[in-house]
């Protein structure tokens, strides 16, 4: 079967031919429909994040997937059911407490692999197998868009953690900013209407630009980081109750402390490269303490977040998903699919359709 993989020593993914996987007892065989590409995939290709499966000289990419159950075996799933797989799986040594309690997203490094990212092959191939506990059923209406459930689920988890951190007092957030106008940033921005009155989104682009058009259509305010650095947002606009960072630009982690108002909370989602720089440690520490601010990191997600993401995806207006999915390619068009450019937001590889 066809798979899109990066080979060791190569900097561009390509189509390779691999054996169709054999379903083990208790597993399901899934026929892949669509797999999205995100900033993390580019990090995997550039070797700034993730690693190849043990002993392999290639890694199949892909972690934003929607597929259909082809062989259900002796599981409770029905053949023909549309599913979205979660990303983390137990490491080679076997399961552990995080998986056993249904919280693999909280496992530290070494206690998991991530399909298509950390030490495991992904789903950018015609078929993959999985235990049913890692497959979340989705309605048939999401056959073309269901791969967006995974990235949305990452932000559902971040929002859960943000609310949990502010749950000990009466907190009524009014203003929120998403840092980053990539696909994760825009999908997250679209979620915030249910949480705050005023939404902002940070980018570094000139108009006309398709991501800025989406920010406008969502009635959010565009903040250009070239004119307004993140730490100057309170003076230029207003102090933020919530900051969701999705740029992977490491300075934003620290500038977020200044962007927040008293009692605000920031969540960091981006995955930056190494970068050494100076921060005003004493002032930021003081600010944190005296203003009851919170800053947290959030990675991955699990079944409850996927279930929330299905609801969220279904609540988005049709225009939003149409505008975000800018490019659909066949596997053979792999070179074009992994190009970058300001005209593309979410690029997807289509292996099959329902
Ligand atoms: P992406 O396509 O790389 O998007 C990042 C966006 O941030 C781009 O639009 C970029 O603008 C913008 N940006 C970067 N630096 C900026 C700056 N200094 N000022 C203003 N805008 C800036 O990636 P993505 O798929 O949306 O994902 C975002 C980040 O989250 C990535 O680091 C990804 O690895 C990570 N991620 C983490 C999780 C998690 O579970 N924690 C889940 C998914 C993704 P330009 O395009 O104009 O350069
Ligand atoms: C994926 C997450 C993953 C994270 C770190 C993100 O792009 O969507 O599932 O945990 O990268 O590898
Ligand atoms: Zn991702």
Q: Total number of helical segments?
A: 11
* Total number of strands: 19
Query: What is the fold-level CATH name, i.e. the topology of the largest domain?
Result: Quinone Oxidoreductase, Chain A, domain 1
C-alpha Rg (nearest Å): 20 Å
How many distinct domains?
A: 2
How many strands, which pairing sense, and closed or not: the largest β-sheet? Answer: 7 strands, mixed
The top level CATH class name of the largest domain: Alpha Beta
Q: Architecture of the largest domain in CATH? A: Alpha-Beta Complex
Q: Helices and strands: which structural class?
A: alpha/beta
Please mark out the parts with pLDDT under 50 across 5 or more consecutive residues, or reply none.
none
The N- to C-terminal Cα distance equals: 18 Å
Order of helices and strands: EEEHEEEEHEEEEHEHEHEHEHEHEHHEHE
Strand content: 25-35%
- List ligands, each type once: NADP nicotinamide-adenine-dinucleotide phosphate, beta-D-glucopyranose, zinc ion
Q: Shape from CA axes? A: globular
The residue fraction in helices comes out at 25-40%
The CATH fourth-level homologous superfamily of the largest domain: Medium-chain alcohol dehydrogenases, catalytic domain
């Amino acid at each position: 079967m066809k798979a899109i993989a990066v080979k060791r020593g190569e900097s561009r993914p390509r189509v390779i031919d691999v054996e169709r996987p054999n379903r083990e007892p208790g597993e399901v065989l899934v026929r892949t429909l669509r797999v999205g590409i995100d900033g993390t995939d580019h990090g995997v290709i550039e070797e700034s994040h993730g690693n190849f499966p043990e002993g392999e000289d290639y890694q199949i990419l892909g972690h934003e997937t929607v597929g259909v159950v082809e062989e259900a075996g002796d599981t409770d799933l029905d053949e023909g059911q549309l599913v979205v797989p979660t990303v983390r799986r137990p490491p080679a040594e076997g399961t552990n407490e995080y998986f056993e309690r249904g919280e693999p997203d909280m496992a530290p490094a070494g206690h998991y692999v991530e399909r298509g990212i950390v030490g495991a092959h992904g789903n950018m191939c015609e078929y993959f197998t999985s235990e049913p506990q890692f497959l979340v059923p989705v309605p048939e209406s999401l056959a073309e868009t269901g791969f967006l459930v995974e990235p949305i689920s990452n932000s559902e988890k971040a929002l859960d953690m943000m609310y949990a951190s502010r749950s000990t007092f009466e907190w009524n957030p009014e203003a929120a900013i998403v840092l980053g106008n990539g696909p994760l940033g825009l999908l997250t921005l679209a979620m915030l209407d249910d949480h705050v009155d005023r939404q902002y989104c940070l980018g570094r682009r000139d108009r006309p630009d398709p991501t800025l058009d989406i920010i406008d259509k969502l009635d959010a305010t565009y903040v250009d980081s070239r004119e307004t650095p993140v730490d100057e947002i309170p003076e230029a606009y207003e102090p933020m109750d919530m900051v969701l960072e999705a740029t992977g630009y490491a300075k934003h982690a620290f500038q977020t402390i200044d962007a927040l108002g008293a009692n605000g909370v920031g969540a960091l989602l981006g995955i930056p490269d190494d970068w050494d720089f100076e921060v005003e440690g004493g002032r930021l520490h003081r600010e944190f303490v005296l203003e009851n601010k919170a800053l947290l990191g959030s990675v991955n997600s699990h079944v409850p977040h996927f279930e929330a993401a299905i609801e969220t995806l279904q609540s988005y207006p049709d225009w939003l998903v149409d505008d975000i999915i800018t490019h659909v390619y066949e596997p053979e068009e792999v070179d074009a699919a992994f190009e970058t450019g300001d005209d593309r937001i979410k690029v997807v590889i289509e292996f099959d359709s329902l």
